[in-house]
């Protein structure tokens, strides 16, 4: 593995980590808004 390969690999890894991080954040928001919606529906049902 040459130095260039290592740099490209590191760059790719960082990008993948960023994407995973963003997806996780997005998922968290989605789950939170889903919970809020469930709470609202429960209150309306009562």
User: What's the helix-strand series?
Assistant: H
Give the overall pLDDT as a whole number.
94
Please bin the fraction of helical residues: over 70%
Percent of residues in beta strands: under 5%
Count the beta strands.
Answer: 0
The total tally of domains equals: 1
Helix-strand makeup class: mainly alpha
Unreliable runs: none
Beginning-to-end CA distance, first to last residue:
65 Å
Q: Number of helical runs?
A: 1
Largest sheet: none
Rg estimate, integer Å: 20 Å
Global geometry = rod-shaped
Question: What are the SSEs and their pairings?
Answer:
Layout: H1 3-45
Task: Provide an overview of this structure.
This protein is mostly helical and 46 residues long. It has one domain (1-46). It has one helix and no strands. The protein has one helix at 3-45. It is rod-shaped. 0% of the residues are buried.
What is the structure about, briefly put?
With 46 residues, the chain is an all-alpha fold. It has one helix and no strands.
Pick out its properties:
46 residues, mainly alpha, rod-shaped
């Amino acid at each position: 593995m040459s130095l260039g390969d290592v740099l490209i690999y590191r760059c790719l890894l960082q990008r993948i980590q960023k994407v995973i991080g963003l997806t996780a954040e997005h998922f968290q928001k989605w789950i939170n808004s889903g919970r809020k919606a469930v709470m609202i529906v429960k209150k309306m049902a009562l």
